[in-house]
Amino acid sequence: MNEVIKTIMNHRSIRRYEDRPLTEEQIRTIVEAAQSASTSSYIQAYTIIGVKDPAKKKKLAELAGNQPYVEKNGHLLIFCADLHRHDLIAEMEEADLTISLESTEKFMVAVVDAALAAQNAAIAAESMGLGICYIGGLRNNLEEVTKLLNTPRRVLPLFGMTIGYPLHESSKKPRLPLEHVYHEEEYEQDEQRLKEQLKEYNETVQSYYIERTGGKREDTWTGQMAQMLSHPRRMYMKEFVEKKGFNKQ
């Protein structure tokens, strides 16, 4: 197993960091690594906003659900779906691109492009001995986030990423069994088999929580998912995404 694969396989979310900012060289390297990710048809439909201002970090931490590590880290990146520059392209090339830019397809392209770039950034940061944590909580209140970041039409903040020097090494959460995720030739539809795999996975996850918390938690994965998905969240999203000029066609 080479060092790249070791880095990827050793991933875990880090939520406590040293009070130590990243250097400009580190930031640039991480962003350049992000830019090296694949991009659909060379569209490059994303932007990364770096946040250093302590007051802005503090506000973003509040908007993300009072997550302290959004405020206290070495650097904060916000990954955005971005088709704004393609509006500028339309002006420069005197072309009407509205239908394409407002299509569900190009919205998906922008989201996928941003996610691919972010994962490259994460691997780059971790390879440098840094820790990271994705922050989906920014979508709790995108109206306020977009105001704070001053994002124009057709730019949609998707998630954040905290980066820094880990104060501790958290335990690695067990993932679904490979057989449940990887199917060959076609989708495995033996539901009884899939349920049996989920039951086995529940036992693994439950053991993880019992050991991690000294018996204070004994969650199963299916129980967690059922509880979480029973309470729909961020149901404003469809209207907000359309208001920002995405996914209208």
From TrEMBL:
Q: Which UniProt keywords apply?
A: Coiled coil, Flavoprotein, FMN, NADP, Oxidoreductase
Key word Coiled coil present: yes
Give residue ranges for domain Nitroreductase.
8-165
Listed InterPro entries: Flavin_OxRdtase_Frp, Nitroreductase, Nitroreductase-like
For this protein, the record's Pfam families field holds: Nitroreductase
GO MF terms here are:
FMN reductase (NADPH) activity
**Ranges in coiled-coil conformation:** 184-211
Specify whether Coiled coil is a keyword of the entry.
yes
Could you say which EC number(s) this protein's record lists?
1.5.1.38
Q: Which CDD domains match?
A: NfsA-like
Enzyme class comes to oxidoreductase
Could you say which protein family the record assigns here?
Answer: Belongs to the flavin oxidoreductase frp family.
> What protein name is recorded for this chain?
Oxygen-insensitive NADPH nitroreductase
Q: Which species is listed as the source? A: Thermoactinomyces intermedius
Organism lineage reads as:
Bacteria, Bacillati, Bacillota, Bacilli, Bacillales
Q: Which gene carries the instructions for this protein? A: nfsA
